[in-house]
Amino acid sequence: MRKLGFDLRQLEIFRAAVSAGSLTEAGRMLGLTQSAVSQVLASLEKEFEVSLIDRSIRPVQVTTAGRMLLERAEALLTEATELDINLRRMSRNATPTLRISMVASLTTVVGPQFVRELGHSFKRCSLFANLRGLSEQQFRSREIDILIGVDLLRETDVALTIPLLIEPFALLLPEAWDKPVESLADLQGLSFIRHTQRTSAGRQIEQAIRQRRLDFPREFESDTADTIATMVSAGLGWTITTPLIALQTRERLRGTRLVALPAMKLRRRVDLYARKSELGTIPQEVAQLLCKLLRTQAMPLLHDMAPWMGDQFHLFEQEGG
After folding, report:
1. Integer angstrom CA distances of residue 209 from 99, 183, 195, 285
2. Do domains 97-163+270-292 and 170-265 have the same CATH topology?
3. Domain 170-265, what architecture?
């Protein structure tokens, strides 16, 4: 049997080069160097003994032979993708574990029901704490299949990014503090209890405070939301948090009130990350499940806790959801 002169990866690279109109841009899309893309195209042209693209034109254009290859490549790659998805669906029961790292506020709020429903499709599901740096490293080393968090892998080309939600930051105040708060400067007489910069919320809050040239003494800080909520409840100070983080610690919120952050529009976005072209439709299905649980379980509680929030808490529509 005659060996084929090409493989699907080469066709994928050829298609990317034509689509991008640039070998450099195609390399960026695929995580390859411009030289690697050029070598693949040269290899195809050598194999078929025909020119496939016109390199003298910018953006690059296909030749007649290149157009024929592109049309056939599109069909083959579509078939291959569908085959991959269908095989993955069939083999789910054989998948030993679906490994997910999730931001703590989501794990606490919807984690139990999330794992229960995933159990209908997977024999085993592992849910890990989302620790920045460690989670990213585990994702890149394939110790984690899906990563759910804030501001993690936006700039990498290996990750598929699915937006899940946007929520506003808010003030958590001791109930006894009944003075009007029109700006954070009005809280100067009360200690600011910080989220440490080991947390995504802590980093985002500190950046916003620096940008506004606000200066609060560094007295108390913690990397656990429960500890911070307990300190506020005890009257030790105030903090900046989000509705989901507050909901995560709702058992410790007695003696506190959650109010809108004054004179500052600060929000965070939570995304789902998965490796591109892997796991078939599983990432989309996980995103759909999470948003469904947030809509049915978390949203009613959030609006009771923070009626001022309105539509500032936004769940992204998920394909098929």
Report:
1. 36, 12, 13, 37
2. yes
3. 3-Layer(aba) Sandwich (3.40)
- Between CA 249 and CA 257 the distance in angstroms is 13
308 CB-near residues (< 8 Å, 6+ apart): 259, 260
pLDDT at 231: 94
HEC string of 147-184 equals EEEECCCCCCCCEEEEEEEEEECEEEEECCCCCCCCCH
- Tell me the pLDDT tens digit for each residue of 86-118: 666 655 555 557 889 898 889 889 988 999 988
Ordered by start, the domain boundaries in the chain are 8-90, 97-163+270-292, 170-265
CB burial readout 32-68, b (16+ within 10 A) else e: beeeebbebbeebbeeeeeebbeeeeeebebeeebee
- pLDDT of the residue at 4: 74
146-171 pLDDT per residue, tens: 999 887 665 555 678 999 999 999 99
Judge contact between 301 and 239, C-beta under 8 A: no
pLDDT attached to residue 287: 95
Domain 8-90: which topology?
Arc Repressor Mutant, subunit A (1.10.10)
How many CB atoms lie under 10 A from the CB of residue 310?
10
Which CATH code is given to the segment(s) 97-163+270-292? 3.40.190.10
